[in-house]
Design brief:
The chain is an alpha+beta fold. It has helices spanning 62-70, 91-109, 130-140, 149-155, 208-220, 257-279, 298-310, 312-319, 326-334, 366-372, 399-407; strands at 22-27, 39-44, 49-54, 78-85, 116-123, 164-172, 175-184, 197-202, 237-242, 287-295, 345-348, 351-355, 358-359, 376-382, 388-395.
C-alpha cells in the first residue's frame, strides 16, 4: 500500500548529473509492484574499483552471500538490484536465482558473471522468479544511460516514502571529482551495518584497498549511527564504485594528501543518505539526534546512545511531545554501560534538566515541551565517567509504524 510522504523529506531530490563511467537503466519486473520500475541495472567502465559492507545478521540473503564471495576481487562491471523480493531464506533455489541473474546481465554487458554484483530487498522467504528478474535485467541493457539518479533511487524503494540521493564534489589533483549515492530504507532499520541498501558512485581513481578502508570508516559514523526500530535486516548492502574516469592521479595510499579530500566527500554523502533513512522511518514525524558524552569509551557512548534511540518509551514520548526525561535516564541505565547516577546530565533542546543526580533547581518544563513539539529533536546526555562520545540519529515511534507493518508484508 502507498504511504504519505514523510514530513521530514527533503524539499526535492538533489541535482545529480551523470557520473563518468556509470550508466543506469531501470525496468519493471512486476515482482510486487505493478505501477513502477522495480529493477535497477548499472554498468561501469572497465577497471572500476569496488568495496562493500554487508549485514551482520546471521540470516543473510543469497545476494549478500553472492557479493561477499566476489567483493574481494575489488573490481566490478555491473550491478543488478531488484525490489519486492529480498531472496532471503530461499536455500539453493535463491542461490540459483543469483547465478541466473548474474549470467544474464553479464552476457548482455559482455563481461563475466563474477563481475556482476547483486542486491535485493523486499519480502523474506519467497523464492524470486529467476527467469523474470534475469530476463528483465538482460533487456534493460538496451536502455543503459537513459535512467537518472532519481530514476535509480525510485526503482530500489520498498516502503520508502521518498527517493534518497546525495552528491558532493571535490577537487583532486586539478580534477573535479564527483561522489554521488542513492539509498533505500524505512523500516527494519538498525545499525550493524545499518539496515538498508545504499550505492555510492564516484568517477575518482581510487584503489580497491583504499576504497575499502575509507568505506569502513565512513559507515561507522553514518549508516551504523542510525536506527528506526532496532531490527537489523538480512539484506543490508552498501557498495561504493570508483570508475577512475575523472582522470585524477590514482589514490593508492591512505597517506596520499588527496585521500583526505576524497574521504571528506565520501563521508558527506554517506552521512546525508543515512540521515535521510532516519527521516523516512516508517511512520516518522520527527528526526531525533542523540549526543552522548562523558562515557567510559566511544564504544560505551555508542551503546548508550543506541539504548536511548531504540527505547520504545523514549520514542513514543517524543511522538507525543511529552517531556518525560525519566525515560532517558532509564535507557542510560539499561544499556549496561558504566554510568554515574549522581553526575548524569540530561538536556533536551539545549535546556539542562538534570544535574548531580536530580532535576536542576527551578527546572521549567515549558521550553522542553515546546522543543519536543517540533520536527527536529535534540537530546544530549553526559554520563560523567570519562571522555567517550557518540552521536546517533533515530525517529519517533508513532501508531503509523504499526499500521504500515501490520498491512504490508516487507
Amino acid at each position: 500500500m502507498a504511504h504519505a510522504v514523510s514530513p521530514l523529506a527533503p524539499e526535492a531530490f538533489p541535482e545529480i548529473g551523470p557520473v563518468a563511467g556509470v550508466r543506469f537503466a531501470t525496468a519493471l519486473t512486476g515482482t510486487r509492484y505493478k505501477d513502477r520500475n522495480d529493477l535497477l541495472l548499472a554498468s561501469f567502465a572497465p577497471g572500476t574499483a569496488v568495496a562493500g559492507v554487508f549485514t551482520t545478521n546471521k540470516m543473510p540473503g543469497a545476494p549478500v552471500d553472492w557479493c561477499r564471495r566476489l567483493i574481494g576481487k575489488g573490481r566490478a562491471a555491473g550491478l543488478v538490484v531488484n525490489a519486492g523480493n529480498s531472496n532471503v531464506f530461499t536455500g539453493k533455489a535463491g542461490a540459483a536465482v543469483c547465478l541466473q541473474t548474474a549470467k544474464a546481465a553479464a552476457q548482455a554487458l559482455g563481461c563475466k558473471p563474477a563481475d556482476i554484483l547483486l542486491a535485493s530487498t523486499g519480502v523474506i522467504g519467497q523464492v524470486p522468479d529467476g527467469a523474470k528478474i534475469a530476463g528483465t535485467a538482460a533487456r534493460a541493457t538496451e536502455n543503459l544511460g537513459q535512467a537518472s539518479f532519481f530514476d535509480a533511487a525510485k526503482a530500489i524503494m520498498t516502503t520508502d516514502t521518498f527517493p534518497k540521493g546525495a552528491v558532493a564534489k571535490v577537487r583532486i589533483g586539478g580534477k573535479t571529482v564527483t561522489v554521488a549515492g542513492i539509498a533505500k530504507g524505512s523500516g527494519m532499520i538498525a545499525p550493524s551495518m545499518a539496515t538498508m541498501l545504499a550505492f555510492v558512485f564516484t568517477d575518482a581513481a581510487v584503489s580497491p584497498s583504499v576504497l575499502r578502508a575509507l568505506l569502513q570508516d565512513s559507515t561507522q559514523n553514518s549508516f551504523n549511527a542510525v536506527t528506526v526500530d532496532s531490527d537489523t535486516s538480512t539484506s543490508d548492502t552498501l557498495l561504493v564504485f570508483a570508475t577512475g574516469a575523472a582522470g585524477n592521479k590514482p589514490i593508492v595510499r591512505a597517506a596520499d594528501p588527496a585521500c583526505k579530500a576524497f574521504k571528506k566527500a565520501l563521508d558527506a554523502v554517506c552521512l546525508d543518505l543515512a540521515i535521510q533513512i532516519a527521516k523516512d522511518g516508517e511512520g516518522a514525524q520527527k528526526l531525533v539526534q542523540v549526543d552522548v558524552t562523558g562515557a567510559a569509551s566511544d564504544a560505551a557512548a555508542r551503546n548508550i546512545a543506541m539504548a536511548i534511540g531504540n527505547s520504545p518509551l523514549v520514542k513514543t514520548a517524543i511522538a507525543a511531545a511529552d517531556a518525560n526525561w525519566g525515560r532517558i535516564v532509564m535507557a542510560v541505565g539499561k544499556s549496561g554501560e558504566k554510568a554515574d547516577r549522581d553526575r548524569l546530565k540530561v538536556s533536551i533542546g539545549g535546556t539542562t534538566i538534570t544535574r548531580n543526580g536530580a532535576p536542576v533547581a527551578g527546572y521549567d518544563e515549558t521550553p522542553v515541551t515546546a522543543h519536543m513539539q517540533g520536527r527536529d529533536i535534540r537530546i544530549a546526555v553526559d554520563i560523567g565517567v570519562g571522555r567517550g562520545k557518540s552521536r546517533v540519529w533515530t525517529c519517533d515511534l508513532t501508531h503509523a509504524y504499526i499500521d504500515i507493518n501490520g498491512s504490508y508484508r516487507s
